[in-house]
# Entry
Amino acid sequence: MVFETKENLTDEEISHGLKLVIRDGLATQAMVTLTGGIFLVAFALQLGASNTVIGLIAAIPPLAELLQMPAIYLVDRVQNRRLVVVAASLAARLFWIPIILIPFFLSPEQGIIVLITSIVLYSAFSAVSHCGWNSWMRDLIPQDRLGAFFSRRLTLSTGIALVISLAAGFFIDSWKVVFPDLAAYGYSTLFLLGLIAGLIGITLLARTPEPRMVTETEEDGLLAAILKPFQDINFKNLIIFLGSWNFAVNLAAPFFTVYMLQRIGLDISVVVALGVLSQVMNIVFYRSWGRVSDRFSNKSVLAVSGPLFMLAIFAWMFVTLPDVYVLTYPLLILIHILMGISLAGVSLASGNISLKMAPQGQATSYLAASTFMNSVAAGIAPILGGLFVDFFAERELIWTLIWKDPVRELVFVTLDLQQWEFFFLFAFILGLYSLHRLTAVQEEGEAKEQEVVDELIAGVRRDMQNFSPAGGLRDLVKFPFSSARIRRRKKKR
# Structure
């Protein structure tokens, strides 16, 4: 049988499987980098998309994740997560073909319709794939290595994204210079390369071993399986935190690129370069955040990285006052540094904490319930942002300080909120609420924030010391199975 499952996997099979998961992560990240984020938004703007359309495009993927709930039934019936993941991923990624062909055959108006439709279908099948993948990884990856494994996976994936995004950004800017009337065709080229990378990722997933699913003996039905995570008080608190956090972040985050391209007037290559700066900080801090999560807890990581990210959101309100000024570019650099450091911890811990707190045998329903609430929150937020952005365009909140003396009068604009800045403020306030909700979540190994910060700084220092010519680079890209095998030997002793 091509997609057979095994009752128990050997250490060699697990090791080989994790290597394939890493490689799939690299291929998938290449696809995501080339087909999403800055390039997708810029392509939509090239077609003439409005702010509402931009918000809708940002909302589609998280809303599509709601399909994970009925996908639970599919995964449980098929009892072969690899088959579900491979088939759904293949179907999803093929829907990028119509998007690639938009500049060749369609008008901008028709192109926007096809773009939205294709993203809906792509996201829908991807959601089904994610449902099976989450449960599959929960059983494949040893629980005591979740932090180290995903920090390594995210580090390498981010490194790939860094290189690809830089090259793609300069490619688009160069393409626009050479072919100013054919700018959309440049994006089609990127999307085609992304599709190829995505198909490579699918072949890697098809070769990854799958342990046999552990299911409950009781047949409670789909509805009971969906409701059970909400009856678990601690997991319900986790769901509330993640939902409120995703709403806060996605209220503002989809408009960062639009803000820099339209409000500040940056070139795509500059926007990409700022994104690369964040990714570099991701790479520097992923390993340290992973060690912190394994030593203490994922909640401890979130308690430090979450406020740091909210500080970055708060700083967006001061980038323009109301126009570009002397602190604009230093603030943009600082913001992207803070976002890179904090997102490394948030993305790692928010995913791992759900995996860790989901009971074995119930991982599919628990993770789907978490995804359901996250998706609702993350989907509603950008739609609201897109609908209200024009409303706030005609409103302005100015806070000034005036100094008068016998000789002169000095006026200092300390805050000037227009359009997108209102969303940054709302996101910051909601983010503070979500961090409050985090305190209700209980996880074994929690530590004080100062302990986490000290451990993080110490880990970064060690990594930077080792990041020296050849040895450090080799250590960065080396997959840590050797150390994992050493740890297993120690346990056996």
Observations:
- The radius of gyration is 23 Å.
- The chain has one domain: 11-492.
